[in-house]
Amino acid sequence: MEVIIRQSEEAAAKLVAQLVARQLRRKPDSVLGLATGRTMERVYAELARLHRDEGLDFSLCRTFNLDEYVGLAPTDSHAYRYYMNEKLFKRVNIDLRNTHLPHGMATDLKAECERYEILIRNIGGIDLQLLGIGETGHIGFNEPLSSLRSRTRDKSLTPDTIAVNSTLFGDEPHRMPRRAITMGVGTILDAREIILLATGPRKAAIMAKAVEGPVTSMVSASALQLHPACKVIVDEAAGHDLKAKDYYRWIFGNEPEWAPYRDTERA
Ligand code: F6R
């Protein structure tokens, strides 16, 4: 695991977008694993800008999202399919047929989860997986005690996650679904590379547990410590409680891989 601390939310999101762009330039038909949520909005805005201003090409890329609410139609403005269409897919030259999310309206959820796993496997697996983190430590919707080897399945959301996410349902918080289909922790760990982005003070305590605490199913994100190629990118606020900050800053300042990105601090 490599931890990178950027000064601002903007700089952290910009760095993630640059790493996604690097992946697409190196391998235009990359399979990207995508996340939704507030944190990712800046990343997708920057990717849309890179497409518009620098011609970043999405035409061959394939995408798999982590999760989708059970019971919401893709056209529902709270569905993750809707989010992805609005925030990214409509703004770049991606072929919508190459974009995949679990179907939250599937009548047979178990079969839908199996279909999703098989689709990911048949396409050759995920090259680069983007992750956010919930205050419960979830990645995808793998809430505490999710098996670290879990696969795509439907899960109950915790009261904490329901409380946090129902604020996004505006004046209809009761419409927030209680279940979601999510890739499992094991599915996520199969990705060849992973980038977790966390920003803002609300993520500080859980980031310290995920990065520097023990690997435990009580904090699903701690399983990322087991991954051979995982980058964790935080802003100062989300990195506030990390103990080895000086070391993480040294990595960014000294590892040759990061040389092209050091000027993003002024972003
Ligand atoms: C969303 C997802 C979740 C979010 C997490 C953080 O697809 O998988 O794990 O990444 O809940 O959400 P925000 O960014 O809204 O704090």
Question: Explain this structure to me?
Answer:
There is one protein chain. The two termini are 24 Å apart. The mean pLDDT is 96. Helices cover 33% and strands 16% of the residues. The protein is built from eight helices and ten strands. With 267 residues, the protein is an alpha/beta fold. Helix 1 crosses helix 2. Helix 2 (38-54) links the parallel strand 2 and strand 3. The chain is globular and about 50 Å long. A seven-stranded parallel beta sheet has the order 1-10-9-6-2-3-5, with helices on both faces. A three-stranded antiparallel beta sheet has the order 4-8-7. Bound molecules: fructose -6-phosphate. Fructose -6-phosphate binds next to helix 2.
Summarize the entry for a quick read.
This protein has 267 residues and is an alpha/beta fold.
Draw up the topology in text:
Elements: E1 2-6, H1 9-26, E2 31-34, H2 38-54, E3 62-65, E4 67-69, H3 80-87, E5 99-100, H4 109-122, E6 128-131, E7 153-156, H5 159-166, E8 179-182, H6 185-189, E9 193-198, H7 204-212, E10 230-235, H8 245-254
Parallel strand pairs: 1-10, 2-3, 2-6, 3-5, 6-9, 9-10
Antiparallel strand pairs: 4-8, 7-8
